[in-house]
Amino acid sequence: MARTQAKPFHSFWLFFPAAALWAAVVVPLSILAVLSGSAWPPGLLGAGHGHELVFGFALALIAGYTLGPQPWKVLAPLFLLWLVARLCWTLAPASLASQLLSPAFALLLARYAVPRFQAAKKWRNRIAGPLILVLCLLPVVFWIATDLRNAPMLPVPDTRRVLITAILGLLLLMAFMGGRIIAPAVAGTMDKHGIRLEARVQPRIEGALLLILPAAMALSLMPSSDPVTGILLVISSLLIMIRTMRWKLWHCMNRPDLLVLAVGYLWLAIGAGITGIFLLQATDPLPALHVITIGALGTLSTSVMLRLAWQRARRTFPPAWQVLGIAIAMSVAVLARLQAGTTPFAHPSLLWLSALCWSSAYGLVAIQLITLFRDSQKRRK
C-alpha cells in the first residue's frame, strides 16, 4: 500500500512566531546585559545585539515570508539550525560553533529561498533573489570580519560596517516587497469604491531604488564613501516618500491595516533620509539606523505577520485595534531610541521605554500568531 505524502507546511506558521518571540526577548536582555553590569548574556553585548536582530530575527522573517509551503524534511533542519545558532551565539559568541552556525543557517536558507524568485522575466521582479542571497552571505562576511579584525593589512570591513550594510539591504528589501504588497492592496480597495489608482507599482521609481540602494550598500562597506552613501540615501528617501504619496492612501480610511503598512513604509523614507543626513554630517548613524530597524522593520514585519495569519486562519484582515496598537507602540519605541542618541546607555529610561514598547508588540503578536494557528488547525479538522 502506497504511503500518503504529508502535506507541505506553511513556513510562516513556524518562523513568524519564533522570530516574534526572539525579537521580544533579545532587546531587553541586551539592555540588561549592559546596565546590570553582569555582561550576560555575552552574545548580546556590543555588535552582538545587532547581529541577532539582523542575522537572527530578520533572516527568520525572510524565511517565513519567502519559503512558502515546505515539507518537514526541509523545514525541520532549517528551523533547528536557526534555533541552535541563536542559543549558541547568545551564550558563547566566541566559540567556533557560534561562528559557524549562523552562516550555515543563512546559506541553507539561501539554498531554498533564492531559487523561488528566478522564474520572473523582468529584472525588477528577479531582484529579490539576488538581494536575499546577499543578505544571506553577509553573516559569512561578518564571521570573516570577526576572525580577521586583528589583521589590519587585509581589506576586510569591520563588523559594524557589515551590520550597516545588512540594514541597508533590509531597507532595500522592505522598499521592494513592501511596495509589492501595498500597491495592489490599495488599488483593490479603491476599485471597490469606484476609484482607479493610476500609480500602482510605479516601475520608474522602483527601478531607481533598485539601482541606488545596492550602490549605497556597496559603498557603505568603505568609510571614505560615507558622503556619497549619504547622498544616495537622501535621494532614496525622497523617492520612497513620493511613491507613498502617489498611492493616495487617504481613500483607504476603512482599511487600517493598509494605513499601518503605509506608516511602516514612510518610516523607511524617514530612516533613509536621517541616516543619509547623519553620514553627510560625518555623525555616528547608529540612532538613525534604528529608525529603519525599529520604525520600518518593526511596523512592517508585525503588520505583515498579522495580515498573513489572519487571512490564512480567518480569511479576513486583522482588527483595527491590533494594527493601530502596533503602529503606536513602534512609533513610541523608535522616537525613544532616537532621543537616546549616540550614547544610549546614558539614558536608560529612554532605552527601557523603547524596549518595553518593542517587546510588548512582538510578544503580543507571537501570542496572536499561535492562537490563529490553532484556529486554522481546528478549521482543517
From TrEMBL:
<feature type="transmembrane region" description="Helical">
    <location>
        <begin position="98"/>
        <end position="115"/>
    </location>
</feature>
<feature type="transmembrane region" description="Helical">
    <location>
        <begin position="258"/>
        <end position="282"/>
    </location>
</feature>
<keyword id="KW-0472">Membrane</keyword>
<dbReference type="Pfam" id="PF05940">
    <property type="entry name" value="NnrS"/>
</dbReference>
<feature type="transmembrane region" description="Helical">
    <location>
        <begin position="127"/>
        <end position="146"/>
    </location>
</feature>
<keyword id="KW-1133">Transmembrane helix</keyword>
<feature type="transmembrane region" description="Helical">
    <location>
        <begin position="74"/>
        <end position="92"/>
    </location>
</feature>
<feature type="transmembrane region" description="Helical">
    <location>
        <begin position="47"/>
        <end position="67"/>
    </location>
</feature>
<feature type="transmembrane region" description="Helical">
    <location>
        <begin position="162"/>
        <end position="183"/>
    </location>
</feature>
<dbReference type="InterPro" id="IPR010266">
    <property type="entry name" value="NnrS"/>
</dbReference>
<feature type="transmembrane region" description="Helical">
    <location>
        <begin position="350"/>
        <end position="373"/>
    </location>
</feature>
<feature type="transmembrane region" description="Helical">
    <location>
        <begin position="204"/>
        <end position="222"/>
    </location>
</feature>
<feature type="transmembrane region" description="Helical">
    <location>
        <begin position="228"/>
        <end position="246"/>
    </location>
</feature>
<feature type="transmembrane region" description="Helical">
    <location>
        <begin position="12"/>
        <end position="35"/>
    </location>
</feature>
<feature type="transmembrane region" description="Helical">
    <location>
        <begin position="288"/>
        <end position="308"/>
    </location>
</feature>
<feature type="transmembrane region" description="Helical">
    <location>
        <begin position="320"/>
        <end position="338"/>
    </location>
</feature>
<protein>
    <submittedName>
        <fullName>NnrS family protein</fullName>
    </submittedName>
</protein>
<keyword id="KW-0812">Transmembrane</keyword>
